[in-house]
Amino acid sequence: MIVKKTNHNFFSNNNLIKMTLIASSLLFSFSTVAAIPNHVAYNTGDAILKPMIMSRFVEMSSARKVPNLAFSDTQGNVIHLNQFKGKLVFIHLWATWCAPCIKEIPQIDAIRQQNADKDLVVIPLSIDEESEKVAPFLAKYNLADFKTWLDPNMDIDQIMPANVVPATYILDGSGNLVGFLRGYLDWSDKDIQPYLEKLTAKYAGK
Fold it and tell me: 40: which of 35, 62, 75, 115 fits an S-S bond (Cβ 3.0–4.6 Å)?
């Protein structure tokens, strides 16, 4: 009886955990959708066929206008999002306290290098509140050559909530939000680069 009772409780607890996870997932999805900018720029047409690795990437049915945000790098240089006219902009959120983010850094930098001569710009963006600690952190882990931009005030919230890292936002050639992915991804997968090239062909000239 004790074993059966334990098993019964085990399965009940498992079901409760599953229900909680489902509810949390639905709430997460709802809050994400609710927070997407609602000023429609244009309809994006038929979505590009996604490889399995990109199944969680959302290509939006309507491009949304976003503010022209500015970020600085670890040397104090400033960029504005609108300076990348005619480019697909790949904004990748990360933080020093996010273990999956650190795992992604070499993969994201590889994407940057692979697309350096293409119409795709990769913008790694640290949302660490103590941004002065970012450069020493990268140096500590032999990542000093990783060029990142800083957003200690989380201005990126004006595009989408920065409550999940890692996260990636895709902007078209006019700076409109056209897609996003929240959470860890193995960016080294062989099917990702061809997909990014298709996104670039579709959106860089918008």
Answer: 62
